[in-house]
Amino acid sequence: MQTYSSIQFSRKLLCHLLCKRPPISELKKIHAQIIISSHASLTDSLIHCYLHTNNVNVARILFNNYHFPSPPTLVWNLVIRAYSKLQGSLESINLFYQMLTLDHPFSAVPDEYTFTSVITSCAHQKSIVHGEIIHGMVKKNGYLMNLYVANSLINMYAVFARVDDAHKVFNEMSELDVFSWTSLLCAYAKGGKMDIASQLFEEMPARNDVSWAVMISGSVGCGRYAKALAYFCKLGKSEPKVKLNEAIIVCALSACAHLGALDQGSWIHGNIDKNGILETSNVRTALIDMYAKCGRIDCANRVFDNISKPDVHNFTSMISGLSIHGLGRHAICMFNRMLVDKIKPNEVTVLGVLNGCSHSGLVKQGLSIFYNMESSWGIVPKIEHYGCFVDLLGRAGYLAKAFGVVKSMPIDPDIVVWRALLSACRVHRNTYLGERIINHIGQLDSQSRRGAEILLSNLYASLGKWDNVSLVRQVMGKQKHQSDIGCSWIEVNGVVHEFRVADQLHPQIIEIRNKLSEILKRAGLVGYAANITHVSFDLSDEEKEQAVAWHSEKLAIAFGLMSTSPKTSIRVVKNLRTCEDCHSALKAIAKVYDREIIVRDRSRFHTFRDGKCSCNNYW
DNA sequence: CATAGGCCCG
């Protein structure tokens, strides 16, 4: 066997390998033939090689067996960097601390590269404590002046939504680049302060694709979907041209999904290839989600069918899509297919399929999935799963069992669980249980109670206990509690129009309201009568009728009827659950105007056709 | 040898 005795030759070979990234087998073969013990720099190169080919463990063995007092800083940096890429691993921080305790005469000391990597690693940890300690060291040793180090600190504080700390680092920097600005944007976006982020975005001297991505994803993150799409459109027109990337596409599709903006969503789909964006798994997941949430489960299916080996995200998106369309049995089939394909479901997948069971009344199947999720797939039920499970039982009318689950669950029930339970009490008109639940909620801490108060008031209202309603409302008024405002979106000719309950903002609002009055009159002719049991204010009947009349989905539908041609379908998306009154009104409107009306509410799709709804009044 | 962004969820 030939031995590479010449160090020079070995080095050259390793350099060559660094570029080539050979398979591990070849690397090990060469490794075996090299005499490394004689020269440190060869070990260094080998470590480098293994790290380059993602063989961290082999590199680590070489690193641990280093024959010299200490590896040079550069080698430490390589290894620390490799571990920081394994997001969530503590190892690079451990190594960093080890490095500080070295006391050989020629010890390695951390430099600006070390700090950059280790701070990045801190950003991926659950806790920021190490990050703060290391920030302290950086302050002392002067590396704060290094652009990379300071930028990684801004990013770290951004990840933890520590806006003030991020901005403080930013302010103290002598030199800023697009990374500094973008990381700062990210901090404000994560901290939910999109208005300030927008301001900074205008101020910053140069923007690139990531800066735009942060603005778009930030807007999506805080529910400003129309704003996200506005950024996306602005990006398309910006000069000089900014290259689109996968993250931007995924975020824009997500915004379309939330808004039900099918035209814009399919436009993006059609333009993916042209922009050199690959249809990666992430993009496909987003496409499936977008089509499903825009009411086109057929298109979602087509995207899914074109995937040769669907991964867990693709499956999850498809299953959730089928579920919100009320296709629970299909969702279960898809879930089973996934298991056959040996793809392990994650917690979101289980949530999706449970949701499907819930909307299709598949109680038995849902029970079996819920009770087996931990033993079969190792998924410990989280509060979300309990919420869904309680919803499943509650909707189907098993109220006592649902309450039993809530009382015995190992986690404290949250607002969602209570909402599921209380809304089941409302649907099934169970006053007795409703009051017991209210008593229960009364004993909760103030924070959970604040969220529960709106539910309480709604339940009291539906029970006709107006004294209690106003009592709760008074308390809420003092706390300035902001509940979700009813909001609906409709896309007409590629433009998304937004309506809020009792809207005054839309430029054609007067016309729309007149149209709505006329529509409701005609709906009345086929038997629709305003249902005001769920109006939560203590108003006169006439006022209550007005309150439901101006629910945002009715305004959006009126606008849709005004501005689309006869017989075409009308699609509306709403952020809350559809109320009973709107539900019956839409059935009547679909019949009188001979239109298909598709409404996606907070939890599922309703397709109104000829006086009936696809949910069979089960929602 | 180093830094920024993202999907599926009641």
From TrEMBL:
Superkingdom of the organism of origin: Eukaryota
PPR repeat ranges, renumbered to this chain: 177-211, 311-345
Domain DYW: 527-619
Keyword set, alphabetical order: Repeat
UniProt record similarity statement: Belongs to the PPR family. PCMP-H subfamily.
Designated name of the protein: Pentatricopeptide repeat-containing protein
Source organism of the structure: Forsythia ovata
